UniProtKB/TrEMBL annotation:
SUPFAM superfamilies: SMR domain-like. This is Smr domain-containing protein. Residues 1221-1313 form the Smr domain. The keyword NADP does not apply. PROSITE patterns: SMR (PS50828). Residues 361-385 are annotated as: Disordered. The keyword Repeat applies. Keywords: Repeat. Residues 361-376 have a biased composition (Polar residues). InterPro entries: PPR_rpt, Smr_dom, Smr_dom_sf, TPR-like_helical_dom_sf.
Length: 1375
């Protein structure tokens, strides 16, 4: 028997290509035994074969073929003249019988191979016994013997199949050789036309059987030999003129193109490489069908069957791009001999695209530059899907005519849409499932293809996975209306069935639309009574699908309120199911129904679910009746028992988890579970699983008493603990904070009784008593990992180190998951230590330990956090391929502990990984690593801003902007090709902001920030407005005013985005004029997140006494935002101006700020009525007062009173003769200005025509009301009165003497003589100032002062003017 092809030496393959064998067995047929003389015969050059004319590319692709037709020229010279040299082809009946015998023999062997490959009943029973019994009923040696025997039989059948196929190949080659060796007049041989049809059919059957058999044995070389021998024989038949009467054209052809399709399909099922599959296709298209001679062997031109086979073969090898290119080349772009595609072609193409959607990136090599370039450069991101498979499918759909599509093709197309929705639902850019589905339906309507129920089910499943409940309900209603419509229309939607209803219900359940869910169940019940043809009764599995959807969404949600809604919806569905089950047996709840609800129960979730109102305002019965989880759980379990529903291990596990905060209820449920599960086949494993659920609840609570009770219950039934139980006990000890107990437990597991006694004495936990006798468990790394992480959570580093040393002694190393947990714990400890260190720094700052140069700077001392971050970095080196989450945690920990260099290196590592992922993807939206980085960037910059670390902040900013630049360059590279002359220059932020150029020219620098706002805001990969704000805060606390000057232009686009005139934010509703105006609420919310940036900048300018930049920053901010700056910023600017004695600029700044339109500035007011305007006036007056600018303070106070923002001090009462001032609620500075302004205003009112040189007469006493201290911190100890008395004495000249008013302790009296003396002094000072101003003006007008100023200078121009002045004086003296 001929052996396998792969077992032969290399030289034998060449002989096999000719159809000859080096060795033969006795069982081989006689005509399969050529002699040595045959092998030595010369080769005639009469004809050339198709394979010999094959191009070099095809021969290289198929190296096992040298010249498949060389054997045709062999002359049988060793045969004598009596032997018959005639081929069987000249006797068609004999030839058909021969090919039929080959076909039946190969078919029989194929059936035998299938029977040998199927496992027998006995072997199945043995396998069951091995899996179900612990001891086993069949030894390993016996099972190996059975396996070896089966493999031997299979090999024997495979060899027989290979031998049969080789016999068939040799027969065809022998026939071709004999035909070419005939010397008889061929024209004399005539056959009938129907004999060619018979020969063609018999050959087709034989070829298909042989090719499929070769595929089943995995011999791809044998498949190629079959195809080549078929072509050689058909070519010999055509060339040597077996022409029936009247035959012409391709009527002599014997080969159907289907043979090549079968060969390609069979090659794809073997281990043949893609190059070999492509070689077969090229041989078929170029060398057989494309050649004028060899094309005559084909009955017809290539069809869609062969094209579909090749596309499927490439798709099975993952070559999606090659498959699409092949289709476009031969079915779309071909000018001649185009292959007409069919619906199956579309199904194959759409199916392979759907199967390729396994991740957001998928087969990244498929998309070309043109497509992605249009997405990135033309701004069509909103129209195109982030899923390239869907975009490619839409383009392919346009290449098919309506007659080439059907429901199956559209179902495959919609399957792509479904998978795209499921894959991109959590991505930054989501796939539009609803518009894509509607597009497909519209196209079907244009093509007049009515969708069937399968197509509509795929659409409904898309809505379910995308959680589009409105679209699902609308489609369901449309299907019902279309099926009931009486209009005669070819295109209509099918009648919804039970699966359609189930998907719609599941969609609404995921979206918490309980009222719609219940109404759909009612519609199903009504439809069941009216429709007898289609069964749409709400069966149990339909209810369970809705409950499963609620449970799945419940567990994926992180909001308590959302979880409460899911629980309320599930509870309503269960009660609806129970009500329907009483009427219809098909709707009775089963164990899965109750398990789904039990899995969602939680103490806090129950309280949230009780507040949810369902349809009609009613709540679920169990939610309204019970207050505790245990009551709801008991009711559900009792209902299951009363209805005869078996409560399994999942039921009790979920019930215990629902009662995790109630230890007594957990013990009760555990006893119930033990009693009910005793009689099961897997009683011990089920009881142990429920026990572990109870231990898991105890571990979450840290309740060691519950652990002891659970272990006692476990010992009563004779079930022993496993490694999961031990890990849970360790976590319970760690939760309770007893790390010494963890160490005692590990020692106890070595068989030490004293450690077991310690645990028994402390908590009543008997570890050794719950382990198998004389069999201690072998501790694995997971137990040690749980112990180490529990110790680290309690900051017990010494015990954790002791456990690690024990692992080293036992040569046990932590797994990657364990190392991950250890690193995460070190990072958590480092960040907690950092928070404590910052608290200590704040306390020290409050106690007066402040850096005088940088008063806002916090200087924590990193000790503990530093050491723990170093430990995290050391352990991280042992982690292979750490996840992004782990790297992010280490980066945060290093930043929190002041390890800026290490944190930056980790961040750069993540950036490099993100850039590599981006370059492999087709668009930045598909790069999930980049999408997660902005949060990490902001977290690190917060730490820099917290401590005023401006240098690390700028270094991080450089790295972030470099990443953003790489993203932009990648997007450009995917679009139009860049001009080779343009060069991208990278300018670091630190080099710009720390240089002196920043204060000279506040412009965005080229190459870094010269980017318009839409691009920055549209792609927030780099620094966003919030990040620039943090940079400003860090610069403020570090005292780097130049950085503030340079950073403000970078935040400008984000501030302008909040301006109503420049914003792109629009409201959803139209105004009265029908125009969409900016949503002021949204803009104000965005502005509130950025307004602290200007405050930080102005505060920094105040510290550094940069009053000019403070004013410039305020003015720019007003222009950018269209709003008033924050009050802290304006007040800081007023303080720095007052310190530089620029009172007039303070007045101008206050006037500029308060004249802003209040349409976009809601006047904020606290409980005490301290408005924005009042705060500005009060703090500005205080600043001016502290700098001694009393006149400016008086002017500002008068303006505040005039505008109504400050209360006037004068009490106008005709019955009172004295001037009375009420200073309640005023600060000392405001009170000072109020007294001065009130006296001067009263004097102006009484004596309007007084001259500046005359003395002022004042006859009224001044009464100042300060209060008796009823609202002071200490009752009847006034604060304002002594402060006013000090002010009148120290800050007025000449001093104003005051005395307590008789009978009123809350008022002061100033005599009229003192007031008159003060007024006269003020009048005199005013006159002197006017004289000084007049003298200065005279000096300026005469020019003498200007010349003297010029003479004092040393410049060249000034020296020239000086010489000119001297010459003029000498000339005057001479005259």
């Amino acid at each position: 028997m001929v052996g396998r092809r792969r077992a032969r030496p290399s030289w034998t393959s060449s002989l096999l290509a000719y159809g000859m064998f080096a060795t033969q067995t006795s069982s081989t047929s006689a005509f399969l035994q050529p002699t040595t003389q045959q092998l030595q015969c010369p080769l005639p050059m009469q004809t050339t074969s198709a394979a010999s004319r094959a191009p070099a590319s095809m021969l290289v692709a198929s190296p096992f073929i040298t010249s498949p037709l060389k054997h045709r020229g062999i002359k049988y010279s060793h045969l004598n003249e009596h032997e018959d040299m005639s081929p069987l082809t000249i006797t068609p009946s004999d030839f058909v019988k021969k090919t039929a015998s080959f076909s039946s023999n190969i078919s029989r062997l194929r059936v035998k191979k299938k029977r040998v490959g199927l496992p027998s009943v006995e072997s199945k029973n043995h396998e069951f016994d091995l899996n179900s019994s612990h001891e086993g009923t069949l030894t390993t040696a016996a099972s190996d013997a059975v396996s070896i025997n089966s493999k031997a039989q299979e090999k024997q059948v495979d060899d027989a199949i290979i031998s049969a196929c080789n016999s068939f190949i040799y027969f065809l080659n022998d026939e071709a050789t004999k035909i070419s060796a005939l010397t008889v007049a061929i024209e004399a041989i005539k056959t009938e036309r129907n004999t060619i049809e018979t020969t063609r059919e018999s050959l087709e059957v034989a070829f298909v059987q042989a090719i499929r058999a070769a595929s089943e044995v995995g011999d791809f070389i044998l498949i190629s030999k079959i195809v080549y021998s078929a072509v050689d024989y058909a070519l010999a038949f055509v060339n040597f003129g077996f022409k029936p009467n009247g035959a012409s054209g391709n009527e002599l052809a014997l080969l159907q193109p289907r043979i090549f399709g079968e060969a390609i399909t069979s090659l794809a099922k073997t281990k043949a490489s893609v190059s070999k599959i492509k070689g077969m296709w090229n041989y078929f298209i170029k060398d057989v069908e494309g050649d004028q001679v060899t094309s005559s062997v084909l009955v017809s031109s290539p069809s869609a069957y062969e094209l579909n086979a090749m596309i499927s073969a490439l798709a099975s090898r993952g070559k999606i791009r090659a498959a699409i290119k092949l289709y476009k080349t031969f079915a779309v772009e071909a000018s001649s001999k185009r292959i007409e595609a069919d619906a199956y072609t579309a199904s194959v193409l759409f199916g392979m695209l759907a199967d390729d959607i396994s991740s957001p990136t998928g087969d990244r090599s498929v998309i070309g530059n043109d497509q992605t370039g249009e997405e990135s450069t033309n701004g069509d991101d909103k129209e195109k899907s982030p899923c390239w498979q869907w975009n490619e499918a839409v383009e392919l759909l346009d290449t098919f005519a309506p007659h080439q599509l059907n429901n199956i093709a559209y179902a495959k197309l919609l399957k792509i849409n479904e998978k795209a929705v499921e894959t991109y639902i959590k991505q930054p850019v989501k796939h539009g499932g609803v518009p894509s589905a509607m597009m497909a339906l519209d196209r079907m309507k244009q093509d007049d293809i009515s969708p069937d129920i399968v197509t509509c089910s795929v659409i409904m499943s898309t809505f379910d996975k995308g959680r589009h409940w409105r679209a699902a309900v609308s489609l369901l209603d449309t299907m019902k209306l279309s099926s009931r419509s009486t209009k005669s229309s070819k295109w209509r939607l099918p009648t919804p069935n039970i699966y359609t209803y189930a998907l719609a219900i599941s969609t609404c359940a995921r979206c918490d639309k309980s009222d719609i869910v219940l109404s759909l169940f009612d519609q199903m019940s009504i439809s069941q009574k009216t429709n007898t043809d289609i069964s749409i009764a709400p069966y149990t599995w339909v209810y369970n699908a809705a409950l499963s959807a609620c449970a799945e969404t419940f567990h994926s949600s992180t909001s308590r309120s959302n979880r409460g809604v899911h629980l309320a919806t599930a509870m309503a569905i269960l009660e609806k199911m129970e009500a329907d089950g009483a009427k219809n047996k098909n709707s009775v709840p089963d164990v899965h129904s109750y398990n789904s609800v039990l899995a969602m129960l939680g103490q806090r979730i129950l309280s949230d679910a009780k507040e949810i109102k369902l349809r009609g305002g009613d709540k679920a019965r169990r939610l309204s009746e019970y207050e505790r989880n245990s009551d709801v759980v008991s009711d559900l379990l009792e209902t299951m028992a009363s209805n005869g529903i078996r409560r399994d291990v999942t039921t009790y596990s979920n019930a215990i988890s629902a009662c995790f905060a109630q230890p007594q209820e957990i013990k009760t449920l555990l006893r119930m579970a033990v009693d009910e599960l005793k009689g099961n086949e897997k009683a011990k494993s089920d009881i142990l699983e429920v026990t572990n659920s109870a231990l898991r609840a105890a571990a979450s609570l840290g309740d060691l008493v519950l652990v002891s009770s659970v272990l006692w219950i476990l010992s009563d039934v004779g079930v022993k603990m496993d490694m999961v139980s031990i890990r849970l006990i360790i976590r319970a000890l760690g939760k309770s904070g007893d790390c010494e107990g963890i160490l005692a437990l590990l020692i106890c597991l070595r068989g030490q009784d004293f450690a077991n006694d310690i645990l028994k004495d402390r908590y009543g936990i008997n570890i050794l008593g719950n382990l198998p006798e004389k069999l201690l468990p072998v501790l694995d790394e997971r137990v040690y990992s749980a112990a180490i992480t529990s110790c680290l959570k309690n900051d017990e580093l010494a015990i954790a180190d002791q456990i690690l040393q024990s692992m080293k002694v036992k040569e046990i190393s932590l797994t990657q998951s364990s190392l991950h947990d250890v690193v995460m714990e070190y990072c958590r400890m480092a960040m907690e230590s950092s928070r404590e260190e910052y608290k200590i720094a704040r306390i020290a700052k409050r106690n007066g330990h402040v850096n005088p140069e940088f008063p806002e700077l916090l200087e924590p001392i990193y000790i503990t956090s530093h050491a723990r971050s170093k430990a995290a970095l050391a352990v991280l080196k042992a982690v292979n391929e750490p996840s992004r989450k782990l790297l992010s945690a280490v980066t945060k920990a290093c930043a929190a502990s002041g390890l800026w260099q290490e944190s930056r290196s980790m961040l750069r590592r993540m950036h490099r990984a993100a850039i590599q992922e981006l370059r492999k993807s087709t668009s930045p939206a598909q790069a999930t690593a980049i999408a997660e980085l902005p949060k990490l960037h902001r977290y690190i910059l917060k730490f820099c801003a917290k401590g005023g670390y401006i240098i690390p902040a700028l270094n991080y900013a450089d790295d972030i902007q470099y990443l953003a630049q790489q993203v932009r360059l990648h997007r450009k590279s995917l679009g139009a090709k860049q001009n080779s002359s343009t060069k991208s220059t990278t300018v670091s932020i630190s080099s710009i902001l720390l240089s002196d150029k920043a204060k000279k020219k506040r412009e965005q620098q080229p190459g870094l920030a010269k980017v318009d706002a839409p691009q920055i805001l549209g792609h927030p990969i780099g620094l966003t407005g919030l990040d620039w704000k943090l940079l400003l805060i860090a610069a403020w606390r570090g005292g780097h005013w130049k950085v503030c000057v340079g950073t403000l232009p970078f935040i400008q686009p984000y501030v302008k985005e909040t301006h109503p005139k420049h914003s792109r934010e629009w409201s959803k509703e139209l105004d009265e004029t029908g125009i969409r105006k900016p949503s002021l609420k949204t803009l104000d919310r965005k502005y509130s997140k950025l307004e602290s940036a200007i405050t930080a900048a102005v505060l920094c300018f105040e510290v550094r006494s940069q009053y000019a930049w403070a004013i410039r920053a305020i003015e720019d901010w007003i222009e950018w935002s269209g709003r008033r700056p924050p009050r802290q910023a304006v007040i800081a600017a007023c303080r720095v101006l007052a310190k530089r004695y620029r009172g007039t600029e303070v007045l101008n700044l206050v006037s500029r700020v308060l004249c802003m339109n209040e349409a976009t500035n809601a006047t904020t007011e606290d409980a005490s009525g301290y408005t924005y305007e009042k705060a500005i006036y009060v703090e500005s007056i205080t600043a001016l007062h502290q700098s001694g600018l009393y006149d400016d303070a008086d002017h500002l106070y008068a303006n505040g009173v005039r505008q109504g923002h400050l209360l006037p001090a004068v009490i106008h009462d005709a019955s009172i003769q004295e001037l009375t001032l009420d200073l309640h609620g005023m600060s000392a500075a405001v009170a000072h200005a109020a007294v001065r302004v009130s006296i001067q205003q009263e004097m102006s009112r009484l004596q309007p025509s007084i001259k500046s040189t005359s003395d002022i007469t004042w006859s009224k006493n001044l009464i100042i009301i300060t209060g008796r201290g009823l609202r002071s911190g200490q009752k009847f100890k006034p604060v304002l009165r002594p402060e006013v008395q000090r002010m009148l004495t120290e800050e007025f000249f000449p001093p104003l003497g005051s005395s307590t008013m008789p009978g009123n302790l809350g008022a002061l009296t100033v005599q009229s003589e003192d007031v008159a003396a003060w007024l006269n002094h003020q009048q005199l000072q005013k006159g002197e100032r006017l004289l000084m101003v007049a003298d200065a003006l005279r000096g300026i007008s005469s020019g003498a002062r200007l010349e003297r100023a010029i003479m004092s200078s040393g410049s060249r121009l000034e020296k020239a003017l000086r010489r000119k002045l001297q010459e003029s004086q000498e000339k005057g003296n001479a005259e």
